[in-house]
Amino acid sequence: MGNSWATFGRDLHLDLTGPGGLRAALLRALRDAVRSGRLAPGTRLPSSRSLAADLGIARNTVADAYAELVAEGWLSARQGSGTRVAARVLPRATPAARRTPGPAGHADRPRFDLSPGTPDVSAFPRTAWLAAARRALTAAPSEAFGYGTARGRPELRTVLADYLARARGVRADPDRIVICAGFMQGLALLSRALGTGRLAVESYGLDFHRAVITRAGMGTVPLTVDERGARTGELAGLDDVRAALLTPAHQFPTGVPLHPDRRAAAVNWARSTGGFILEDDYDGEFRYDRQPVGALQGLDPDHVVYLGTASKSLAPALRLAWMVLPDRLVDPLLAVKGIGEWQSGQLEQLTLAEFISSGAYDRHLRGMRLRYRRRRDQLVAALADRAPHVHVSGIAAGLHAVLELPPGTEQSIVQAARWQGLALEGLSEFHDPAAPTLPRDALVVAYGTPPDHSFAGVLDALIRALPPWE
Question: Strand, coil or helix: what is 416?
């Protein structure tokens, strides 16, 4: 029993969660293990006594679960042969096996989520945040409980000016910082403040960023992205472009930094035309192999808008982001933001200010760098050992990695990942349809999203979904 149960026990242990008690959790775990292929047809299961002892539950609970799964056709039981996975399991839904619809209304929720955009929210520093909130509330002036202003709390803007100068090389004054309810709101406000014209975007990026820009009344035009980042030299040949949205520290999603020559070209274009560079520094704190490159804004604060957020460093639920604006954009943006726009909660702003000034933010970031670097190293090592034909591109940074694939295989591998219970996106999903170049085949793997306790299972499922080495 030891050998046959060793690899299965880990997956079963991870899946004994959810509503309905231990029996329902065990039924779900066994069905998922068979459905996903972790338990192949004919695999002999441990006896009900052994499994109950391993899981620390009653033997009758295991025996009842086995009996129900035999009746449903998932398992087979013969005297002298024990309980085994049925030779042929039809992927039919039973009332007990139906999954709860997800937030977007999908009937089948993945077991593991490798979609980019979210950090490991299970690592949110609850105790330190609560302590900061208590201190902030104790010291808060009475007016902090009012509606607030479009700029944001002065306490947070002051702390951010010091932190961004120290950690990211940003040249900031508190009066040029505006707090917003997430990066998306900041991008929408900037697009409206810029007025008519077009905004250049990287040919690989998020489609809803482009949608926000167009809803604000501006058009978009793609800049080609290659192994050196966006080809900012293309800006010189574009008419009616007011600004360019770039991810210089770590291009999203291809994972490359903007080459120094192209950083200079972007700034020179903004200076010569009076335009702006919108610098999305979404994960600039997370560089693992060397000191992070400084923010592009440090080269020219009069032509670069710096955008940062707590969504990757802490949690999206905080809805806290910030813009460091050139002087000539402050009043136009505040005029837009002051009319009918959501404001970030003042108490959350005060808490973040205290969290940063107390040193808790730096400590949290150091801990998360170690965690994310360890996961990236585990991903790279697993691929080198079990799928050496799959290459990881991009720098050692951020919360995701790009896995290069043979041409024409991306969609089939994404589908195979779904069969393994993985929510996974291909690089082509992020390619601007208006770009003249064709997307290459690759996977965008967000190793920062899953919690630590499930990461080994995530890697196993990912490796199973990859094409075999020929």
Answer: helix
Question: How high is the pLDDT of residue 10?
Answer: 32
223: its two tokens: 């800049």
Cα Rg of the chain, angstroms: 25
Question: Which residue reads 């980042």 in tokens?
Answer: 229
Pinpoint the alpha helices (H) of 387-433: 410-419
φ and ψ at 103, to 5 degrees?
-60, -30
Reported confidence tier of residue 89, pLDDT bands at 50, 70, 90: very low
Average pLDDT over residues 261-265: 97
Q: Specify the 3-state DSSP secondary structure of 407.
A: coil
pLDDT, one tens digit per residue, over 404-431 is 999 999 999 999 999 888 999 999 999 9
Structure tokens at 465: 């979904």
C-alpha to C-alpha distances, 110 to 172, 287, 426, nearest whole angstrom: 42, 29, 16
> CA 59 → CA 48, 72, 81, 284, distances in Å?
6, 20, 19, 51
Residue pair 469/388 in contact by the 8 Å Cβ criterion: yes
pLDDT value at 92 more than 70: no
Q: What's the pLDDT tens digit per position in 348-365? A: 999 999 999 999 999 999
pLDDT value, residue 109: 67
Residue 125 and residue 108: Cα distance in Å, rounded?
A: 30
For residues 187 and 212, the answer to whether their CB atoms sit within 8 Å is yes
Whole-angstrom Cα distance, residue 234 to residue 269? 10
How far apart are the C-alpha atoms of 256 and 247, rounded to whole Å?
A: 9
Tokens linked to 137: 């509330």
Q: For residue 452, which of 350, 391, 375, 352 has the smallest C-alpha distance?
A: 375
Q: What is the pLDDT of residue 90?
A: 43
Nearest C-alpha neighbor of 321 from the set 332, 312, 333: 312
**d(Cα 208, Cα 183) in Å, to the nearest integer?**
12
What is the DSSP annotation of 286-300?
-BSSSPPPPPGGGG-
Asked if 360 and 128 count as a contact pair (C-beta separation under 8 A), the reply is yes
Non-local (6+) Cβ contacts of 436 within 8 A are: 222, 224
For 132-171, the pLDDT digits (tens) are 999 999 999 999 999 889 999 999 999 999 999 999 999 9
Residues 6+ apart with CB under 8 A from 81: 44
Start-to-end C-alpha separation, the chain: 33
pTM over 0.90: no
